Amino acid sequence: MEELGMERCRRILDFVTGTAAADGGGPVAVAVCDREGFLVALQKMDGTPTRVAYLARRKAYTAARMQAATGDFQARLAREGLDIRWFCDDRLTPLPGGAPLRAADGRVIGAVGISGRPSADDQALAIAAAALD
Length: 133
Fold this sequence. Notes:
Elements: H1 6-23, E1 29-34, E2 39-44, H2 50-66, H3 70-80, E3 98-102, E4 108-115, H4 119-130
Antiparallel strand pairs: 1-2, 1-4, 3-4
Helix pairs in contact: 1-4
């Protein structure tokens, strides 16, 4: 059974921070959590405000717990007229920038959260990071 290991976490952190450093779009924070939403890795690039790291962590948590990208979760809330408080979990966020990490068989084994850029950019970067093998 494939689980989320530190090697995959390191590849995700390196990919996200390397991409952000190279594209000139400003620094980001990246968080990786396990399938239960427990933080296993966090990296905040130089110049990234602390609040951004907090948001990255919540995005990763939400993607893991909801087993969906946070942008999709946001769309679901709007589409179904749901109030996020109905989920009874104050750590959830609908802000785009989180994506689930999956094993080869499709099971969610964790999630990645990115913050520091416009929401659409955070989400695109999280999806790209989640697609890494």
